[in-house]
């Protein structure tokens, strides 16, 4: 699915906030002709607005009746309307009901006060700006207020590409979805040749890294002392698989260690190469893969390196199980592999992961208050969680401020 910047006047291809390009489908004939918007539900999710709002906005602007079937995600505007025209109207809806009036950021929520006034609450700059109550849509919004937002669900742009599927998966692990952070990863990874393709291009001479059992053993022995500890996945039943050189997880961990900054491969890998390697090993959808990325790819400069790899982490973290494994990888990274990250690096890494939607609030809070021996020993687990305290306090303060804002609006 094609995606565009939510603010279409911004031509920066790295602009964070994205949405699907609006599509139309004309159905019926004569007086029964109508325009169906098949991806309106995805657009609504990207804007953090019910899909009925922009659809109703179209009806107000065009003087046309609208129909909503939210259960089946079917949104209709009566009459025949070109996609170009509706995209222009969508820009108008975004300007009036999504963008913060102060900073023009789309990361806003709609709040309705007791007197019926509608406000845009900006999570980026903190401004509370009024919506133009003269527009007809405001009556519809007042009668159909936005659903209460669940804690831990962040703002606009997250759902921009969530209909793009990378394929099947098993063990209850989702295949993952592309969004504004990760669409680039899949396209770049697709351009990286496989080992077989590289061999053909070089006349049959294989110049890629040898992943045979003998080669893996030789490289592991050559690595600096203690580095093999980073390949341990978790306590208990996973240990045996982690120590098996034929395991794809073992091979992935070795590859990450060799191709990280200062690794023995002599060059630092890209995010696309990390994803491509996971694909080659058939573990791109597995929760333990993100744990290995976190604990084996980063160095003592992890806070700086996060910007380079945040896209592949966001792409591969697709479920609660993935998030818990990601936190387990963080425990091993800071608690064992790179202890210099304790204490200042841990809260910064958590903030970075939270901001790219790789971690949900409730999962982080539960992790922060429940010591576990699954990934590290109990003392190390406590140490990492104590280091995370500034970030956990920030989450609590953000919740408190949000509750106070709701109370203030109710008192208006």
Number of helices: 17
Kindly provide the name of the CATH class of the largest domain.
Mainly Alpha
Question: pLDDT below 50 for ≥5 consecutive residues: which ranges?
Answer: 151-181, 204-208, 222-230, 233-240
- Amino- and carboxy-terminal Cα gap: 42 Å
CATH architectural name of the largest domain:
Alpha Horseshoe
Considering DSSP H and I runs of 4 or more, what fraction of the residues is helical?
40-55%
Tally of domains: 2
Strand content: 5-15%
> How are strands sequenced across the largest beta sheet?
3-4-6-5
SSE succession: EEEEHHEEHEEEHHHHHHHHHHHHHH
Short description, anyone?
With 412 residues, this protein is of the alpha+beta class. The protein has 17 helices and 9 strands.
Structural write-up:
This protein has helices at residues 40-47, 52-62, 83-97, 137-143, 183-191, 195-201, 213-222, 238-242, 248-259, 271-280, 287-297, 302-316, 320-337, 345-355, 361-369, 378-387, 389-411; strands spanning 3-5, 18-20, 25-27, 34-36, 66-69, 74-78, 108-112, 118-122, 128-130. By secondary structure, the protein is of the alpha+beta class. The chain folds into two domains: 3-143, 2-Layer Sandwich (Defensin A-like), CATH 3.30.30.170; 183-398, Alpha Horseshoe (Serine Threonine Protein Phosphatase 5, Tetratricopeptide repeat), CATH 1.25.40.180. The chain has a four-stranded antiparallel sheet with strand order 3-4-6-5, with helices on one face. Strands 7-8-9 form a three-stranded antiparallel sheet. Strands 1-2 form a two-stranded antiparallel sheet. A hairpin with a 6-residue loop joins strand 3 (25-27) and strand 4.
